[in-house]
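Subgroup meeting minutes
Present: P.N., E.W., G.H.
Scribe: E.W.

1. P.N. recapped why we're keeping a running log of single-chain structure predictions: easier to compare across weeks, and new members can see raw inputs and outputs side by side.
2. G.H. added today's entry (178 aa).
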Amino acid sequence: MGRHNIGSITFTRFRPIGRGARNESKFSYNRNRHKEVLEKILSCAIESKGRIKVSVHDPLYEVVVSDYCSNNGLEPDFLRSSKVSGCRAGTFWLGVGPNGDVSPCPLLLNVGVAIGNVLDKSLKEIIDSSELFQGLQQRRQGRSGCKNMGICGCCLAHAYSRTQNLFTKDPMCWIQRR
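Output recorded in log:
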């Protein structure tokens, strides 16, 4: 534990969805500043030497961790906050709303992105028949044109909030696609 008896801290990126969309100008900043913030969080995590567990709920943090590790001869798992890196939407998790709607990301339920309803079909049937879930699997395997997609996965909810398209670049990403 740290000197203030803090055992863990979690950072979550502001995403302009739901009620947050009205407050984007108050809480959001540009992609370069976002990278600086993520690098500072990583620096603090390293400085704590494991005394404080640092979790970051932002897929782009995985790019910062990966870059730091490759520049310092370390394995990325050394600093990851979990075993699965990047955005997990449609690949390692999904959202089910109180009405039964299923979405690849719990945050996307706030903006009405649903691919089925568990009151009508089984979860397996919904996932197996969803072109969206299949597209997310392919995207995650690096078929998106971004060399870091397998590391980060980008934030689908943030991308969708800006473009109404789940397969566009994360608006907070500072990396140029090939």
